[in-house]
Amino acid sequence: MFGSNDTSPLLGFILLGLTGHPKLEKTFFVLILSMYLMILLGNGVLILVTTLNSHLHTPMYFFLANLSFLDICYTTSSVPLILDSFLTPRKTISFSACAVQMFLSFAMGATECVLLSVMAFDRYVAICNPLRYPVVMSKAAYVPMAISSWAAGSITATVQTSLAMQLPFCEGNVINHFTCEILAVLKLACADISINVISMGVANVIFLGVPVLFIFVSYVFILTTILRLSSAEGRKKAFSTCSAHLTVVVVFYGTILFMYGKPKSKDPRGADKQDLADKLISLFYGVVTPILNPIIYSLRNKDVKAAVRSLVRQKWRFPMILCSVTST
């Protein structure tokens, strides 16, 4: 194992994970692996149907495909590392791999925040200004919106990762986490991290505060417009077009608030249980939300369900046609 005094942190970090709870490792390996495969399947199917089905070539489903791809990238940046930590006695990660993992995790999280706000704007235009929707949300507009979301997340991740990786880590190289989570890494620094704290505070305002405010204002206008509709059927249809996105927003930001807003234990004797609870909450946050997104959109969206059924029928029809051709 790497030492804290005589070994350069450039060689790597030690990830504690569930080292203190070995009996849980095999159970969580099976559980996280199963959830990861579900993430790949669910989000992969959504990307496939939104790409292949011409009826889903609209801004909303384009953003949905981006969200699914983002969830796959986010989980792939961390879950394989977590699974490996459950099986490998020597739970180490190189300095460069830690930087890449930290960058991807931060970039995907920031991108999702911006992307969810862009999707809220799409729903606002569709419901509040339906006649202008084809013009406002043209392909020349919604494609740059998605690209800007990815670019903004990548830029802030580059800044945060660069600032963190320039710090000296002479206090040790043991990260009390499953992955190179940026807050856990900063705790190891033996230099002033005030710049890091300030930059992360600014990033939180830009990528958490501003999108939440934008989404909130958008849905105030959306709800006001829906309640003004005279037709009950029209209100129901309008609610159904934005209910899936609103559910994803509540799940995404609700889990973030629960993770970082819950009170910490003041009892030193419960510190170990507190650390375990924090790590498990963070672990499940990284896999539960990407699982829920395709479930929410498929269960609450008739177009997606119809596209999935059509895709399944086509996949079954092709082997049957192939068998009949070969038999003749």
Tell me what the structure shows.
By secondary structure, this protein is an all-alpha fold. A 3-stranded mixed sheet has the order 2-1-3. Helix 1 packs antiparallel against helix 3 and helix 2 packs parallel to helix 6. The longest helix is centred in the middle third of the chain and has 35 residues. The N terminus is likely disordered.
Relevant terms:
single chain; 328 residues; mainly alpha; 3-stranded mixed beta sheet; 11 helices; 3 strands
What's the SSE blueprint?
Layout: E1 13-15, H1 22-52, H2 59-76, H3 79-87, E2 92-93, H4 95-128, H5 133-136, H6 139-165, E3 174-175, H7 182-186, H8 194-228, H9 232-261, H10 271-299, H11 302-327
Parallel strand pairs: 1-3
Antiparallel strand pairs: 1-2
Helix pairs in contact: 1-2, 1-3, 1-10, 1-11, 2-4, 2-6, 2-10, 4-6, 4-8, 4-9, 6-8, 8-9, 9-10
